[in-house]
Amino acid sequence: MVNLEELKKEASQILKEGKVKYIIGFQRGSNGLLPVPAFIKNPKDVEKLVWDPTCVYNLTLFLQDEKRKKTKEKEPDERPVGIVVKGCDSRAINVLLQEEFIKRDDVYVLGVSCENTGVLDEKKLAKKLKGKKAKKVEFGANDDFVITTEDGNIKIAAQEVLAERCLECKAHFPVIYDVLIGEKTKRNVENPFKSLEKIESLPPEERWKFWKEQIEKCIRCYACRSVCPMCYCDECVADTINFVVTPDTSAEEKAQKIKWLEKSPVSSENFVYHFVRAIHLAGRCIDCGECERVCPLDIPVRFLNKKLEKEAKELFDYDVGFDPDKPSLVSSFKDDDPEDFIR
Amino acid sequence: MAEEFEPKIVAFLCKWCSSAGSDLAGVSRMQYPPNVIPITVMCSGSVSPLYIFSAFNKGADGVLVSGCHPGDCHYIKGNFYARRRIALVKKLLEYVGLEPERFQMSWISAAEGVKYTKVIKDFVQELKPLGPQKKLRRTQ
Amino acid sequence: MDHNTYIPKLAKIIEIKEEVGGARPIKTFRTQFLSTNNFSFHSGQCAMLSVFGKGESIISISSSPLLKDYLQFSILKMGRVTSSLHEMQVGDIIGIRGPYGNSFPVEDWKGKNIIFIGGGIGLAPIWSVLNTALSIKKDYGDLMLIYGARTSKDLVFQEELEELRKRMPVHLSIDVEEPDWKEFVGFVPQNVTDKKPSPKNAIAITCGPPIMIKFVIKALEGLGFKDEQIYTTVENKMKCGIGKCGRCNIGVHYVCKDGPVYSWAEFKKLPQEY
Amino acid sequence: MEKVLSKKAFPQWVKKLESYTMYLPRKDGDFWNYEVIKNPEIIDLDYLNTVLSPKKIIFPQREVLLEFSTSNEEELKINEVLPEEAQSVIFGVRPCDAKALTLTDKVFGGDFKDPYYWKRRNSTALVGLACNTPPSPNCFCLSVDGSPHSKEGLDILITDLGDKYHAESFTKKGDDLLNLAKALFKNPTAKEKKDLEKIQAESKKKIQRQIKDTKKIPPKLKDMFDSPFWDEESLSCIRCGICTYLCPTCHCFDINDEVTSSSPIKGERVRTWDNCQFPDFTMHSSGHNPRPDKAARLRQRILHKFQYFVELYKNYQCTGCGRCISKCPVGIDIIEVLEKARDYGS
């Protein structure tokens, strides 16, 4: 079992020693079941840290803010940022290292193992509880979750309320860390792409119907982009000003910039956005599932990423986020990459 | 009687091979359907997936990316990168239900004028029964 | 609900003058409405110009409202819309809607001395009120213009400025020394301090880049100008022009509707977010 | 007009209104959304609040303002495109969402009446549903001058009395709807009136969240513009647009030209929702941005709702629907932010 006290002790120590400038972790929020991100500078505040199945966020996202802030500072504090990561989140760190978005010295990784379980799917839990309100969710002793409700505690097998991505997780423990809390529990996942089967098995026209219906719902709030630790581009084709404008940018440059998609949230434009998002994450998405969790319209955007993750595995034997020294999926090739589709 | 549907194909042709191949077909007066809107690019590896999505968005009935044969790339490795990337784009488009026939890739060298005409002829023949591409096209 | 303000009126470009070349070009456009002109405005107000297919851009009207023949806009090439305006020819059609925003309280200024202080393209909104004051000069006291730009080539309305010298003092400046430049070298605020306009019975109007406005106000304060004697016009990104689209606000003020003209006394009360 | 309708008769009433375009919340997966009623037989009013408020019907996310085109003679033509004036009814509008429309009314009214907004607004009747139990755990209408059975903005308010609905009409539009099916409605008995009072009193108690001393917030915010508070509060903000797009009172929009043919030129000028949380919202063409970071943008959102709007229109620009709290990806809670601001530095 992961010992929260161990995490707090470690966090407190590195803050006291001045090893890190601050720590990004989880703390209880003012509302609902989910925690909120914590940015802890003072060793006293490490008491606020929590670790339980509601710690769904991928906090590596906030390394983007850190980097942006740092580039603006004249004399930046070069110490690393302490960051609490799960297995999936740690793979994001590896990808960010692989892409040289961050350096290894920029982060002090407080790895926490999900061991035999993972994080909660709030919606699955709500369905299970049938209207009863969960106040607290904790890891149980037997791969289960202990739910505190108004009328006492309930134990539910983790498998039943785990986030979909956790059921398909390839490593439940951090693959890169400075400190590891918990154990590297091996669990066999029979088919890491099982959830895709339902859509893949549909005939093409049904599949089209499914995706059209889903993508049409999109209101382009860009939460899926905003929450993604890999979506760190300064320029994005989806924005009206889709590049960095400085006082030196000429009027011609601005005028000639192509408007790839309209702001109108209609099917055709939404598809361009979601295609670009998906393809830009091919070989980079570590399946933290945050994009799908945050979608206010419940669009299963994760299935787009997951599909490309599957293809990368099957076509190119590429696994994402396990080795920061490996070349990335699309900046490498093998001589015998499949080309049966080419004329 | 309704006129027969003539598909619009946007073809991204690499400057060194495929575009030269299409020129050869032209100067050799080979016959092939006039359905292609050719866009010469420096290398098949320089074709961003965004170009492909954008072509469909702006009304292409089919999109072709064509480069040098493996080993012949002017930039040594460009077409190998393209091969990977295009494979992923193709899988993605088919996954959401676009007809696989609508997006093609080919290797056409500067000497293969004949192959170019065949690729285009076949492409047009395959697109005709599908009718206009409306799925990803901006509504007008 | 008789009038739909989002629908622009079509207007023809009747004259184009190249004011400034180079990397930051400025052109002055004169336009005439295709149908009857019932577009009446006051100095300081803006209009939303359309290039159909490119979009809209809010531009201050630089001609005097007393002139009924045409509307004049001096436009710095900056982005998508202004770039296509710069490519347009005489005879081309644009859309104009408005006028929007408030205006300079020229009526209240009668009998007063007015000092106009502009920087770069910032002379455009001032030009309208300057010309109005000039055409009824007897109603006003002494007029003075202090105007500067990066280089002598970046000064707008050069011919008109020469004409203007015959009727009022004109003090020009450029940021860095050039051969043959006989006037002030330095930034506009420095020129203000140098020319020492008197605050007595005077109004100062300033428009230019935000940083210039800030220092011009300091210079004026140094000369004894009170907050109520200083006026400025502000710009922000705008889309609707009528205080609804929500992006141009500074505090409770929508610059498109409640601005762009502010006395420093009013403006300093707003949150400094512009 | 005050009436009572048996629940069984509800679909019959809806059927009588067939000449109207009718919207009702419909369940789509795990959430509810407004949709046009196709089959009045299978409707009920037992639903949680919708992801998007009826704002999306009155002020759609995409709206064509005009069309432009050049003919062969190169003559440019523009054509005003106003929405069709279809008489519509939106059923089941929660009181907070109805009140929100009275707030957007203020924005789209004033000196320049927005014809697109008002065409729809004037031809739409709002039939509300009182919240006997709060439709969201984050409801806080009572703290922002609202109530679970407020009639503000509604033409009719329906209250669930168990096996029947109490329906009260406040406007002519509402009366018309009731009069179209006169036979189905009865006058409420004294007991039913009493039940209604009881339900209304109880519904207020069930609301779980509140802001204390809301009144103290606007004057406090006025002095907090330059406070480091906004940096601290916005640390976890991820710059997405959920809070504002889902807000029933947010009204910001963008206008763009969408070109369908470049030669000869042909296209539409389109208005779409826009969002003060996006970096490019206020960015000038020069690259200068008056609100350069997420702290400035969070401040704008909070100040707009709880200071600027209050100064301009004497109302909070928030009706306590709780959507922004429930759906924020990182748990930013407007109640908490406001209460912290209220107590900041004291």
Automatic annotation (TrEMBL), chain A:
- Which segments constitute the 4Fe-4S ferredoxin-type domain? 208-239, 276-306
Enumerate the Gene3D superfamilies for this protein: Alpha-helical ferredoxin
Segments of this protein annotated with the region Disordered:
323-343
Which is a Pfam family this sequence falls into?
A: Fer4_8
What InterPro entries does the annotation carry?
A: 4Fe4S_Fe-S-bd (IPR017896), 4Fe4S_Fe_S_CS (IPR017900), Helical_ferredxn (IPR009051)
The record ties this protein, via PROSITE patterns, to: 4FE4S_FER_1, 4FE4S_FER_2
Named from the GO MF annotations, one term is: iron-sulfur cluster binding
The lineage is: unclassified sequences, metagenomes, ecological metagenomes
This chain belongs to the protein called 4Fe-4S ferredoxin-type domain-containing protein
From TrEMBL, chain B:
- The organism's lineage? unclassified sequences, metagenomes, ecological metagenomes
Q: Which UniProt keywords apply?
A: Iron, Iron-sulfur, Metal-binding, Oxidoreductase
Where in this chain does the record put each F420-non-reducing hydrogenase iron-sulfur subunit D domain?
9-131
Q: Annotated Gene Ontology MF terms?
A: iron-sulfur cluster binding; metal ion binding; oxidoreductase activity
**Is Oxidoreductase included in the keywords of this UniProt record?**
yes
* Organism expressing this protein natively: marine sediment metagenome
**Any idea what this protein is called?**
F420-non-reducing hydrogenase iron-sulfur subunit D domain-containing protein
UniProtKB/TrEMBL annotation, chain C:
Q: Which Pfam families match?
A: DHODB_Fe-S_bind, NAD_binding_1
Q: Which Gene3D superfamilies match?
A: Nucleotide-binding domain of ferredoxin-NADP reductase (FNR) module, Translation factors
Domain FAD-binding FR-type as annotated: residue spans: 6-106
According to the UniProt entry, its GO molecular function terms are: 2 iron, 2 sulfur cluster binding; flavin adenine dinucleotide binding; oxidoreductase activity
Q: Name one GO biological process term.
A: pyrimidine nucleotide biosynthetic process
Cross-referenced PANTHER family, in alphabetical order? ANAEROBIC SULFITE REDUCTASE SUBUNIT B, DIHYDROOROTATE DEHYDROGENASE B (NAD(+)), ELECTRON TRANSFER SUBUNIT
Name this polypeptide is given: FAD-binding FR-type domain-containing protein
TrEMBL record, chain D:
- Tell me which Gene3D superfamilies the record gives: Alpha-helical ferredoxin
Question: Per its UniProt record, what Pfam families does this chain match?
Answer: Fer4_22 (PF17179)
Question: InterPro entries, per this entry?
Answer: 4Fe4S_Fe-S-bd, 4Fe4S_Fe_S_CS, Helical_ferredxn
4Fe-4S ferredoxin-type domain residues: 226-258, 308-340
An example molecular function term from Gene Ontology annotations? iron-sulfur cluster binding
Q: Transmembrane region positions? A: none
The entry's protein name is 4Fe-4S ferredoxin-type domain-containing protein
**What is the species of this protein?**
marine sediment metagenome
